[in-house]
Design brief:
CATH class of the largest domain: Mainly Alpha
CATH superfamily of the largest domain: Ribonuclease III domain
Structural class: alpha+beta
Number of helices: 9
Order of helices and strands: HHHHHHHHEEEEH
Largest sheet: 4 strands, antiparallel
CATH topology of the largest domain: Ribonuclease iii, N-terminal Endonuclease Domain, Chain A
Strand content: 5-15%
Distance between the termini: 57 Å
Length: 240
């Protein structure tokens, strides 16, 4: 009998989740733990926090290994910049949203009443927790396969961009994909005589203004400001 024909009470959410993520667990308790937010249990040790901690590190390593083998001509600094764009909280939250992982989560009443209102940070955590659970259940290859199914196209897109000279275009793509809006550029300051002015521009996204940057003209200042915003969005400190 297919799930479509089963009575609602007979449908196993863990079974459905495994179909969505494309991985069958041998130890389903790991998946259950990965889907359990701290608000849904009495003890934080019974939540997905430890698996999220593990999954966060595994995700970074998967991205690094992929970049190392896929792009042998990239220097260390370029790989660091690409990783900072790809391995991010907004990206993980977007993957969870696309997979509708929130609909399988165990949540307390104070967090959300339906999957449409789950905060982005919780969605990011559950993706990393599931990755950690897959690693413990099936090993490195299984975890890598799952992560790269979700992220390899994004890695290719970012690696194909010139992060320093095309930061505005890359930021536009990421902000539209992850926030559903477009970045705005604000003139913060200007200095120098009329024939040789420098300008400080900053990026504003959904009312939040990121670190500004100086340039010999507004276009250059906007590129540098976009790079700063990319770095701050990923919680990284990068030097262009």
């Amino acid at each position: 009998m297919s799930n479509e024909n089963k009575p609602r009470q007979e449908i196993d959410p863990l079974e459905d989740c495994q179909k969505v993520i494309g991985y069958q667990f041998k130890q389903t308790d790991l998946l259950k733990s990965a889907l359990t937010h701290a608000s849904g249990v009495d003890s934080r040790l019974a939540s997905n926090e430890r698996l999220e901690f593990l999954g966060d590190s595994i995700l970074g390593l998967i991205c690094c290994e992929f970049l190392y083998h896929r792009f042998p001509d990239l220097q260390e600094g370029d790989m660091t910049k690409i990783k900072s764009v790809v391995v991010s909280r907004p990206t993980c939250a977007k993957v969870s949203e696309d997979l509708k992982l929130g609909s399988f989560m165990v949540l307390g009443r104070g967090v959300a009443y339906n999957s449409q209102s789950i905060p982005a940070n919780i969605l990011a955590d559950v993706f990393e927790a599931i990755l950690g659970a897959i690693y413990l259940d099936g090993g490195w290859i299984a975890a890598k396969d799952f992560a790269l199914r979700q992220l390899s196209s994004l890695i290719e897109d970012v690696a194909g961009s010139d992060l320093k000279n095309n930061a505005k275009s890359l930021l536009q793509q990421i902000v539209q994909r992850e926030f559903g809006t477009s970045p705005q550029y604000i003139l913060i300051d200007e200095n120098g005589p009329d024939h040789s002015k420098c300008f400080m521009m900053a990026v504003s996204i959904q009312g939040k203004t990121y670190k500004g940057a100086w340039g010999k003209n507004k276009k250059d200042a906007e590129q540098s400001a976009a790079f700063n915003a990319l770095a701050q969005i990923q919680n990284q400190t990068l030097e262009p």
